[in-house]
Amino acid sequence: MSIKYSVRHAIHHEDSKNYDTEKLRSSYLIETLFEPDTINAVYTLYDRLIVGGIHPKSKALKLEAFDTLKAENFLDRREIGIINVASPTKVTVDGTDYEVGTKEALYIGMGAKDVTFHPATTGEARLYFNSAPAHASYPTRKVSLDEAETVELGSLEESNHRVIRKVLVNSVVKTCQLQMGVTELKAGSVWNTMPAHTHDRRMEAYFYFELPEDSAVCHFMGPANETRHIWMKNHQAVISPPWSIHSGAGTSNYTFIWGMAGENLDYGDMDKVAPTDLK
To answer: Measured between alpha carbons, how far is 3 from 5 in angstroms, rounded to an integer?
Structure first.
């Protein structure tokens, strides 16, 4: 079996505020996502979202169910969104091949039986994924960068000039509850998701990549009136509970993937917090 998994339980914010650095990191940070010829998955008790990384290096990897799912196939009761964060590669879904380029996305709906990830012909394949429970079966679809809903926000003067590409949102592809996108910061900009916000109707996960090896991102979380931070490196992810803000600042510009699951598919459903109100 090529899939490795762990489980993260939901945590109340009153408990979380007492955590030291080690406890904070072990509860929310996902340090290792990519291991050669392995699918790594973290099953969270926040809206049952699974966060994972796929690294087929010398052999193809099949998406298999693990014990916690209590299902014959991984997608028997789930949908999955996959974003390629490395070299172009191929994904086979029930006998159909999908060529997925760098930063392109693939949505696979509930009910797919045989999902296989192939090594890249040139370079290495690394695919980041989020998976959420599903109530209906929607067609598998690849989403290119040209098909994404693209928004440019911020400015260099505010250190947050960025391009947001919404690849798996309801204005682009039909999903049950999963939403994902890619945000790229321009050179000279380091802040993401500022002003910060929360959304009690949904949880979120962030995955940071294209970050130089000698750089780091300081990811901010917690209630707006009592924030905490986690220092993160390239190819690491962080779980953001519904009660938590999710924002970051890096020692360099970088790219990150945001993924959400929860009660609704309204991208704009958020409760903003002014920078002057953060504590």
So the answer is: 7
Distance CA 143, CA 50 (A): 21
**39-58: buried (b, 16+ CB within 10 Å) or exposed (e) per residue?**
bbbbbbebbbbbbbbbbbee
The Cα 272–Cα 279 span in angstroms is 14
CA 55 to chain centroid, in Å, comes to: 16
Domains annotated for the chain, with CATH where assigned, are 8-277 (2.60.120.10)
Non-local CB neighbours of 91 within 8 Å, separated by 6+ positions: 82, 97, 98, 100, 106, 115, 116, 117, 118, 127
Please enumerate, by residue number, every residue annotated as part of a binding site for Zn(2+): 197, 199, 204, 246
Per-residue pLDDT of the chain (279 residues; tens, 9 = 90+): 789 999 999 999 999 989 999 999 999 999 999 999 999 999 999 999 999 999 999 999 999 999 999 999 999 999 999 999 999 999 999 999 999 999 999 999 999 999 999 999 999 999 999 999 999 999 999 999 999 999 999 999 999 999 999 999 999 999 999 999 999 999 999 999 888 889 889 999 999 999 999 999 999 999 999 999 999 999 999 999 999 999 999 999 999 999 999 988 888 788 899 989 999
Nearest alpha carbon to residue 206 among 35, 44, 19 = 44
- 3-state DSSP: the chain helix, strand, coil percent, rounded to 5? 10, 45, 50
Binding-site residues:
197, 199, 204, 246
Cβ burial of 188 (10 Å; 0-12, 13-18, 19+) is exposed
Distance between CA 214 and CA 236 in Å, rounded?
14
